[in-house]
Q: What sequence folds into this?
């Protein structure tokens, strides 16, 4: 189950890299940032306006961890879309990291035997499933729709042209439905995801647009929409 826990995975080395990048070689500024980290915690440093760009162009032997890289990129993209929600950034960064591994994006959970490559397969599974797994299928409906439309909008457009596939509004509707249904399930509160899932359901097109920006900057920088 994907959780909103990316910041919890950050290490001391991650935070030292943040300070190194933001200090820009100034010992005075580095000392100032270290004091801020001690007194305020890492959130304000992670929100520094120039941090995302510095992570993208880092020229140090100290490379950002996957958690640091994706959290900062997603957090800054969401803020640009007027979504100032750190827990939501935590969740979406965790989604990108987990769905990027092997065939996880096609499975409701790591240990699930079924693979779903199309939205209709997830809908069929949802209708046939009960209990705790039904909650996971609801979440997966939202996650998979957001993964596809957020990172691969050109694939959606190409399928629509070649095979008369559904347009973005189809994915928006299903993704929003999945997250909204999941937010009302009792397990959402148990996993600490109730507000995150509700926001994802309410603001799905905005989340998609924010992830389009991440996709353009990180995965397909020469692929304009």
A:
């Amino acid at each position: 189950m994907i959780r909103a826990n990316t910041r919890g995975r950050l290490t001391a080395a991650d935070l030292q890299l943040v300070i190194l990048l933001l200090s820009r070689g100034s010992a005075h500024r580095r000392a100032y940032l270290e004091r801020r980290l001690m007194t305020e915690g890492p959130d304000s440093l992670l929100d520094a306006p120039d941090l995302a760009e510095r992570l993208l162009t880092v020229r140090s032997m100290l490379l950002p961890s996957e958690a640091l890289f994706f959290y900062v990129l997603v957090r800054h993209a969401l803020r640009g879309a007027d979504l100032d929600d750190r827990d939501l950034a935590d969740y979406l960064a965790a989604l990108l990291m987990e769905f990027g591994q092997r065939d996880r994006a096609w499975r409701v959970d790591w240990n699930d035997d079924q693979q779903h490559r199309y939205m209709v397969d997830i809908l069929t599974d949802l209708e046939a499933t009960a209990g705790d797994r039904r909650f996971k299928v609801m979440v997966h409906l939202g996650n998979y729709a957001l993964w596809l439309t957020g990172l691969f909008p050109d694939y959606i457009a190409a399928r629509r042209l070649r095979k008369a596939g559904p347009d973005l509004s189809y994915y928006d509707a299903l993704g929003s439905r999945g997250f909204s249904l999941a937010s009302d399930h009792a397990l959402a509160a148990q996993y600490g995801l109730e507000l995150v899932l509700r926001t994802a359901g309410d603001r799905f097109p905005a989340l998609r647009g924010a992830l389009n920006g991440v996709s353009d900057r990180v995965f397909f920088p020469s692929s304009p929409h």
About this structure: The chain has 13 helices and no strands. Residues 132-151 form the longest helix (20 residues).
